[in-house]
Write a structure and sequence with these properties.
Layout: H1 2-15, E1 19-25, E2 32-40, E3 50-53, H2 56-62, E4 74-80, E5 83-93, E6 98-107, E7 110-119
Antiparallel strand pairs: 1-2, 2-5, 3-6, 4-5, 6-7
Length: about 120
Amino acid sequence: MGVLAGLLLIAPWFAQAAGLGELRVTSTLGQPLRGEIRVVSVKPGEEGLSASIASMAAYANAGLTWGANLTGTQLTVVSTKRGPLIQLKGAQSLNEPAIDLLVELRWPTGRVLRAYRVLLDRPKN
């Protein structure tokens, strides 16, 4: 019982770890991936954030399909007035209307993974 109570006391601490917000995509079908993800719930000690597309092994463990067209995609963490933001910049055109994106956010004392289903609209004429 004491262990359970101890775990319940530290559970809010874990719940407040840095996380990944919604993905906002600004590119369309046939273009390289462009978008941004807000980093949420950053607390002291979680500075030094870095982000990347997760490894092929992480995709397999999550039951997601790795898209070869994600190779070379750069994720950059930038500081804004509203807090950290991850900017995504793809190197290759995306010709599939839907792709799985698994993002890994790391900091000196932890990491988090989040999966996104990216749905790309056709370009407007």
